[in-house]
């Protein structure tokens, strides 16, 4: 029989989240049942709960930054055991047959991966995420959280961490590379830590200098305010790689001109309006404009192991479940340093 668990649901786009109970499926032979300890709040949760991207299946339980411990395993499970510290990220299944899946790039599954929430699972039922006391997930989509990371600071790594780690690795950030990160928020601050640990020279490009002390403490070598026009003159042709973590529509041409020969600007956010890319800014120095989203399961595990080795976790503010709606408003107002994490014991 399905298990009834406590959760916080978004009942409709124009209503606040509220406590409720949901059903989790029976433990299958390949499944892992996880007692959730912490669930991070991602801006994607807010977009979904408020139907800002359209297509939300209400009621929905958000949350795809999940950290907890294994409570039970199916008879065929070999990767995880009861008591293991584990995490679940942005998706809980994929077709497993297409070329991206076979290459370990399940995030780009040609048939569409199964989101941790607001998706439909193989059983035909809606998926619900981490704002709940437990979850059942196929073992192939569960990652091990090393002992070197506390579960609360590990939770945001399952989305924010891999979102930055994946492009940093793909574009070979490391010694001798100059990397800039646009925005020092929930995504950007983790990117600064990871890029620094990889050995790159790291610059933060932020609207103002108000977070400069934080940026330098987290590992940035340089910090510039993009509200100052001189910044774009001083940094022209400087960087090998720029990661844009903000969702606002920026003047992309100004940032492309900061790239060196063969440099790449990678879009990680989802702006409201289409992005205008001036061809001249690309052609002049054989620059590239690209995009990236999270990473596959194997790379997510690699990221967690890397973060444990280098003592990297998210900068967090732990909240109780009854503070979720307030936290949503604070995220929208950029009033968080740098990631809210729900203590699910308070559900």
Rg = 20 Å
Would you tell me the structural class of the helices and strands?
alpha/beta
Largest sheet: 7 strands, mixed
State mean pLDDT (0 to 100 scale).
97
Sequence of secondary-structure elements: EEEHEEEHEEEHHEHEHEHEHEHEHEHE
* Sequence stretches where pLDDT stays below 50 over 5 or more residues: none
Count, helices: 11
Distance between the termini: 22 Å
Q: Give the fraction of residues assigned to helices.
A: 10-25%
Cα shape: globular
What is the total tally of β strands?
17
Strand content: 25-35%
Catalytic activity: a primary alcohol + NADP(+) = an aldehyde + NADPH + H(+)
Domain Enoyl reductase (ER): 12-342
Enzyme class: oxidoreductase
InterPro entries: ADH-like_C, ADH-like_N, ADH_Zn_CS, CAD-like, ER, GroES-like_sf, NAD(P)-bd_dom_sf
Structure, described:
With 347 residues, this protein is α/β, with parallel strands linked by helices. The chain is built from 11 helices and 17 strands. The strands form 4 sheets. Strands 3, 4, 5, 8, 9, 16 and 17 form a 7-stranded mixed β-sheet that branches. Strands 12-11-10-13-14-15 form a 6-stranded parallel β-sheet, covered by helices on one side. Strand 11, helix 6 and strand 12 form a beta-alpha-beta unit. The protein starts with a strand and ends with a strand. The mean pLDDT is 97. Keywords: Metal-binding, Oxidoreductase, Zinc. GO terms for molecular function: oxidoreductase activity. Its cofactor is Zn(2+). It is an enzyme of class 1 (oxidoreductase).
């Amino acid at each position: 029989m399905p298990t009834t668990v406590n959760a916080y649901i978004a009942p409709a786009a124009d209503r606040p989240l509220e406590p409720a109970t949901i059903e989790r499926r029976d433990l299958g032979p390949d499944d892992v049942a996880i007692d959730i300890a912490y669930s991070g709040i991602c801006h994607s949760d807010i977009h979904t709960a408020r139907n800002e991207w359209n297509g939300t299946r209400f009621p929905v339980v958000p949350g795809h930054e999940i950290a907890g411990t294994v409570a039970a395993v199916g008879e065929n499970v070999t990767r995880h055991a009861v008591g293991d510290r584990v995490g679940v990220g942005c998706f809980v299944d994929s077709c497993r047959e297409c070329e991206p899946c076979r290459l370990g790039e399940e995030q780009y599954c040609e048939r569409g991966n199964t989101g941790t929430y607001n998706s439909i699972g193989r059983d035909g039922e809606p998926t619900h995420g981490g704002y709940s006391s437990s979850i059942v997930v196929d073992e192939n989509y569960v990652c091990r959280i090393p002992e070197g990371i506390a579960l609360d600071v590990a939770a945001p790594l399952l989305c924010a961490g891999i979102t930055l780690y994946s492009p940093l690795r793909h574009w070979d950030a490391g010694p001798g590379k100059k990397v800039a990160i646009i925005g020092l928020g929930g995504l950007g601050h983790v990117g600064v830590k990871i890029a620094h640990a990889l050995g790159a020279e790291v610059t933060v490009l932020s609207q103002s200098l108000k977070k400069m002390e934080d940026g330098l403490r987290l590992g940035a070598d340089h910090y510039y305010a993009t509200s100052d026009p001189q910044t774009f003159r001083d940094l022209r042709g400087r960087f090998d790689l720029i990661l844009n973590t903000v969702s606002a529509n920026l003047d992309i041409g100004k940032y492309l001109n900061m790239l060196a020969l063969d440099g790449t600007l990678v879009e990680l956010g989802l702006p409201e309006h289409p992005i205008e890319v001036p061809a001249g800014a690309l052609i002049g120095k054989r620059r590239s404009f690209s995009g990236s989203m999270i990473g596959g399961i194997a790379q997510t595990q690699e990221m967690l192991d890397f973060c444990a080795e280098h003592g990297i976790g998210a900068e967090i503010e732990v909240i109780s479940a009854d503070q979720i709606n307030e936290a949503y408003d604070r995220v929208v107002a950029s009033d968080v340093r740098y990631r809210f994490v729900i203590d699910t014991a308070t559900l």
